[in-house]
Design goal:
The structure is a homodimer. Chain A is of the alpha+beta class. Chain A has a single domain, classed as Mth169, Chain: A, CATH 3.30.1280. Chain A contains 2 helices and 3 strands. The longest helix of chain A is centred in the C-terminal third of the chain and has 16 residues. The N and C termini of chain A lie close together (about 5 Å). Chains A and B meet through strand 1, helix 1, strand 2 and helix 2 of A and strand 1, helix 1, strand 2 and helix 2 of B. Strand 2 of chain A pairs antiparallel with strand 2 of chain B, so a sheet runs across the interface.
Chain lengths: ~80, ~80
C-alpha cells in the first residue's frame, strides 16, 4: 500500500526558507508570487492492506519522527 | 490563488535521506514500512485568477528554481 505524507509549518510559524525562495523567484522575474511556504513530503510504501490501520500507523510515525508537532501539521493520504 | 507543488526524486535515483528515515522508522518499531522516499513540498500564493496560466507560470518556476529536472519530477496542483 502506498501513502503520501505532507508536513507543513503551522500558520504563524516563521518560514525563512520559504521567504528565501519567494525572494529568489521574484528576482528571477516571477512577479506574481505573493508568498511561498516550504514543507516536506514523504512517499511511503507499506505492507498490509487496510487503509484505516495504515493511516493510524502513519499518524504515529508522524508524531514520533516525521513531523515536529509543536510547529508542524501533517496530512496523510493513503493511495492504495 | 493557491497552488501546491510536490517535487520528488525520479525513479532509479538513490534517496539516502529516505533510506535513513526508513531505517529510523524500523528501529522505532514500525515494521510495516517497505520503503520511504523523501521529497519537497511548496505552497504558493499567487496573484492572478486564471488557473491555466498560473500552472504554466509555476511550471516555469519549477524548471528554473524549485526542482532539479535532471533527477526530480514535479507535480503542480492549483487549488484556487
Amino acid at each position: 500500500m502506498k501513502a503520501r505524507v505532507t508536513v507543513t509549518l503551522k500558520n504563524g510559524v516563521l518560514d525563512p526558507q520559504g521567504k528565501a525562495i519567494e525572494g529568489a523567484l521574484k528576482s528571477l522575474g516571477f512577479g506574481g508570487v505573493d508568498s511561498v511556504r516550504q514543507g516536506k513530503f514523504f512517499e511511503l510504501e507499506l505492507t498490509g492492506s487496510d487503509p484505516a490501520s495504515a493511516k493510524a500507523e502513519i499518524a504515529k510515525m508522524c508524531d514520533k519522527l516525521l513531523a515536529n508537532t509543536v510547529i508542524e501539521n501533517y496530512a496523510i493520504e493513503v493511495t492504495g
